[in-house]
TrEMBL record:
S-adenosyl-L-methionine listed as a keyword: no
PROSITE patterns with a match to the protein in the record: G6P_DEHYDROGENASE (PS00069)
Protein name: Glucose-6-phosphate 1-dehydrogenase
Cited NCBIfam families: zwf (TIGR00871)
UniProt-listed Enzyme Commission number(s): 1.1.1.49
Protein function: Catalyzes the rate-limiting step of the oxidative pentose-phosphate pathway, which represents a route for the dissimilation of carbohydrates besides glycolysis.
Pathway in which this enzyme or protein is active: Carbohydrate degradation; pentose phosphate pathway; D-ribulose 5-phosphate from D-glucose 6-phosphate (oxidative stage): step 1/3
A Gene Ontology biological process term: pentose-phosphate shunt, oxidative branch
Family of the protein in this entry: Belongs to the glucose-6-phosphate dehydrogenase family.
Pfam family, one: G6PD_C
Glucose-6-phosphate dehydrogenase NAD-binding domain residues: 9-195
Gene Ontology molecular function, alphabetical: glucose-6-phosphate dehydrogenase activity; NADP binding
Amino acid sequence: QEAGCLSIIVLGASGDLAKKKTFPALFHIFQQGFLQENDVHIFGYARTKLSDDDLRERIRGYLGKVVSTENAEVLSKFLQLIKYVSGSYDSEEGFQLLDMQVSEHETSKNSQPGTSRRLFYLALPPSVYPSVCKMIRRHCMNQSDLGGWTRIVVEKPFGKDLESAEDLSAQLGKLFDEKQLYRIDHYLGKELVQNLLVLRFANRFFMPLWNRDNIDNIQIVFREDFGTEGRGGYFDEYGIIRDIIQNHLLQVLCLVAMEKPVSLKPEHIRDEKVKVLQSVLPIKPEEVVLGQYEGYKDDPTVSDSSNTPTFATAVLRIHNERWEGVPFILKAGKALNSRKAEIRVQFKDVPGDIFKSKKQGRNEFVIRLQPSEAMYMKLTVKKPGLQMSTIQSELDLSYGLRYQDVKIPEAYERLILDTIRGDQQHFVRRDELRVAWEIFTPLLHSIDDGQLKPISYEPGSRGPAEADELLAKAGYVQTHGY
Ligand code: BG6
């Protein structure tokens, strides 16, 4: 059976996420030929009253700035694919109207009943997920018995703690089965995050070294050099642990630490991720440093007595044969001195060192997720020249230099394509989400209760000095380049 036509329905079409991420990603995959003009329609749905042209102009306004003039024609073609339906998120009529429009499109494309594909992208706050999903279930489901399907894309925050996340999962789980739900964590769509499996399991170099016998500590770091600009209200309710660490950094940890999956099948990979998460021990409060940048509370949408961390370092310990005793240091902060996301794998000292090279630093393998994707190994070499002394140097694979002709896709482009293809590998499974919340909920509750308080730090700094002390205590040794 030939697949029928494709309808992509963006709910929350007039919002920020749709404007900045969803529509640009759709445009880029269209531009690269992955969405066939005569096959696909894009529907925007939101409460704001707009005409088709109003929405198109809004999208053009945003995309026009990033699209080069030679692509202006492609942009116009893309915009012609977009229609708009207005309605509220719990309105029976609104969703009936949406279904009518989508069905009209399907009929006009002669899609055989049961073969059409409907992708619902919820660019919305999670508080409305249950009502929107109920409406989709009630009014907009495709009869998916002949190869057609209905898929739902949702994005964090999935709850605020274990209980609320489980509640949300249960509500969505009653309406759709796991195969239909695509929980986005956009870090899983990043090139160098996707590279982790290949790196670990296709290279003889790493396999024998990737364990507690050789690795001393691993850092997974996210830094941003700007504050919560314009998002203070949202951020203050969630904080850096819920915004970055419990999801993005923990997903990276899974891929760094998990065992080799039986195969590349999404379920095999996700099984291994769940296992490693299940082996994480409770986080000790003394292995956590929280920070809040000075001026954070000047934002009128942030409470004056806010205890919300904008910075956190937490040591996670994995209780299994491979990782016992190796600290995984997860660190994230806003308003710091640089914008960077990287994984730093620091190896142990060389036993019986005859070069006294230790003082120059340890072997370290760095995977820079962004900006300027790169992988480099810090290693000790003989200092070139007549003398016999050693220096730290680097074996460097910088993507910008090595793969000059390749445009690295945006995470959202890849993930939306995956949803169309039905590949759930890079999406978070329900049980994975539950264990991720289990790990962080006790810590989050002690912050919410005010038992743990953030230390103030200067915007543009490295964050609280206590975090560096924690890092050193966990075993990290600062290495110095040449
Ligand atoms: C989002 C967070 O999930 O990720 C933001 O809500 C953060 O606070 C963003 O800025 C970072 O994404 P990226 O891809 O720029 O690292």
